[in-house]
């Protein structure tokens, strides 16, 4: 049975434009909060394949989206490379010993040594393949090397990225060493997700906007393209989605062997279509806060449909759904996307 989401990634005809939401398996769903409480904490949930599979499937049943995105966290990668990850309430993810020296980079596990430790992720995917309806796609994912490196160097989320950027300009060799090591792990991590059963993979560069446009290719995009090239050579039938958040100035310079470009909400969809619509299917890009209003949601969905005309498009938000969005508003978004694009 063909999966509408996979068909759309390859620009094949579909009965309507498929829709899913970033962070759709998450805190806005009371059912998710119940399972998370059962797990004890966020990391325990990531490490428990049975519970992670349960929350991955919830949005399909409750909200009606066309694809499931694996429930996990981007920071399981540096954690398994040997950095100690903690989630602290009110502060988010913390690495107690951020990377400062070449010796610390050398001490991290690399390649298959790290990728092979992420067995709980692959087990979750295998469980999902048994449980998901045949017509629903499963999206695997990873953080981009730059986004992962920012946490590894800063030790936590940051508004200024000053420690990373100090390294970028004063010791670029060290930053490239970190990025190369992470890239090698990510390649194998994504390959293992595909082997376990992921139908599609997405590479998130959440902190793309932290890099000035002149440096973006050197320190982020080229590593994402390297990962895509590695996967496409081995698995040409698996669609790859690239999502660099906050890079409208970079659209002219986008290149690479992938299928779908995720458009963030700060980039006008008409501009993305003009620059990239001939080369890539476009995903996005409703401002997530529109979900607080059903009227604002409908207006945006109709505007996106007018721009894209159901061709080379996947509906999504321009970033993740927020925890206090009413579930009925998320359901409304999905139904509106299907309504306006029905062929």
UniProtKB/TrEMBL annotation:
Q: State which Enzyme Commission number(s) the record gives.
A: 4.1.1.37
**Residues annotated as domain Uroporphyrinogen decarboxylase (URO-D):** 18-27, 139-155
Check the record and name the InterPro entries matching this protein: UROD/MetE-like_sf, Uroporphyrinogen_deCO2ase_HemE, Uroporphyrinogen_deCOase
> Which pathway does the UniProt entry assign to this protein?
Porphyrin-containing compound metabolism; protoporphyrin-IX biosynthesis; coproporphyrinogen-III from 5-aminolevulinate: step 4/4
* Alphabetical list of Pfam families matching this protein: URO-D
Regarding protein family, the annotation reads:
Belongs to the uroporphyrinogen decarboxylase family.
> What does this gene product do?
Catalyzes the decarboxylation of four acetate groups of uroporphyrinogen-III to yield coproporphyrinogen-III.
This protein's assembly is summarised as: Homodimer.
Q: What is this protein called?
A: Uroporphyrinogen decarboxylase
* Name of encoding gene: hemE
């Amino acid at each position: 049975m063909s999966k509408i989401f996979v068909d759309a990634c390859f620009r094949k005809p579909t009965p309507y434009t498929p829709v899913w939401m970033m962070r759709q398996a998450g805190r806005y769903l009371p059912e998710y909060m119940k399972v998370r409480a059962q797990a004890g904490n966020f990391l325990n949930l990531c490490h428990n394949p049975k519970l992670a599979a349960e929350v991955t499937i919830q949005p399909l049943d409750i909200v009606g989206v066309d694809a499931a995105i694996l429930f996990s966290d981007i920071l399981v990668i540096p954690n398994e490379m040997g950095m100690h990850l903690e989630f602290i309430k009110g502060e988010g993810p913390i690495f107690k010993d951020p990377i400062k020296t070449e010796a610390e980079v050398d001490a991290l596990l690399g390649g298959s040594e790290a990728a092979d430790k992420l067995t709980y992720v692959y087990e979750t995917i295998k469980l999902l393949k048994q449980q998901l309806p045949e017509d629903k796609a499963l999206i695997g994912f990873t953080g981009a090397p730059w986004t992962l490196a920012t946490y590894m160097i800063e030790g936590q989320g940051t508004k200024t990225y000053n420690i990373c950027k100090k390294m970028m300009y004063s010791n670029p060799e060290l930053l490239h060493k970190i990025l190369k090591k992470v890239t090698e792990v990510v390649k194998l991590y994504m390959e293992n997700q595909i082997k376990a059963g992921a139908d599609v993979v997405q590479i998130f560069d959440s902190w793309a906007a932290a890099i000035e446009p002149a440096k973006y290719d050197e320190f982020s995009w080229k590593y994402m393209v390297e990962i895509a090239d590695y996967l496409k050579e081995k698995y040409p039938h698996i669609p790859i989605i690239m999502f660099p958040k906050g890079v409208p100035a970079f659209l002219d310079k986008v290149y690479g062997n992938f299928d779908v470009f995720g458009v963030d909400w700060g980039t006008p969809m008409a501009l993305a279509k003009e620059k990239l619509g001939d080369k890539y299917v476009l995903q996005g890009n409703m401002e997530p806060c529109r979900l607080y209003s059903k009227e604002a949601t409908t207006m945006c969905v109709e505007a996106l449909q007018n721009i894209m005309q159901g061709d080379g498009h996947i509906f999504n938000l321009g970033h993740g759904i927020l925890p206090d969005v009413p579930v009925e508003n998320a359901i409304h978004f999905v139904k509106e996307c299907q309504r306006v694009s029905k062929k």
